[in-house]
Amino acid sequence: MNLGFVALVFYFTIYSFLGWLLENTYNFMTEKRFFKENFLRGPFKPMYGFAPLLLIALIAKDTHWSIILLYCLCIPTFVEYTSGLLLHTFFRRRWWDYSGHPFQLHGHICLLFSIYWTFLSLFVLKFIQPLLTDIYGVLQPYWIWLFPFVILYFIVDLIYATLKHSSKHEDLVEQIQR
């Protein structure tokens, strides 16, 4: 699917928000608290934005179902592993940890959740993306005016989160509190 930058930002924003809703709903069901700490301040989980965009970009209409299934397993797993590794490397923190699960890799991914991502990705490709494509078709004239502000929001939120979670910031806060 050939998408322009404006459409990519739209889909990324929607999928990142839906990922935030999904994770907080899961947290509510397992921990009885809706809000789970997030890297970003706002209600967005970027890895849920990147994975569907990669799937949409790589899967053509004539792609064999076995390749689609393989992509739906590998791409979200790769995005989750990379996200976990980068967050842990740069911020010395884990926002999730699969260390207690069987068939896990460095606590960043595990087989059970990779299977969940596979089914979720198939659901997104079959049902959510066609719906979002229709919604985008209706909202496109308005989105063109709104998307620069959304990009600015993501940039500011990323800068804020990076400063908030960086070890230098934590060391500074610790010094001030002494």
From TrEMBL:
<protein>
    <submittedName>
        <fullName>ABC transporter permease</fullName>
    </submittedName>
</protein>
<keyword id="KW-1133">Transmembrane helix</keyword>
<feature type="transmembrane region" description="Helical">
    <location>
        <begin position="142"/>
        <end position="163"/>
    </location>
</feature>
<feature type="transmembrane region" description="Helical">
    <location>
        <begin position="43"/>
        <end position="60"/>
    </location>
</feature>
<feature type="transmembrane region" description="Helical">
    <location>
        <begin position="6"/>
        <end position="22"/>
    </location>
</feature>
<feature type="transmembrane region" description="Helical">
    <location>
        <begin position="109"/>
        <end position="130"/>
    </location>
</feature>
<keyword id="KW-0472">Membrane</keyword>
<dbReference type="InterPro" id="IPR010540">
    <property type="entry name" value="CmpB_TMEM229"/>
</dbReference>
<keyword id="KW-0812">Transmembrane</keyword>
<feature type="transmembrane region" description="Helical">
    <location>
        <begin position="66"/>
        <end position="88"/>
    </location>
</feature>
<dbReference type="Pfam" id="PF06541">
    <property type="entry name" value="ABC_trans_CmpB"/>
</dbReference>
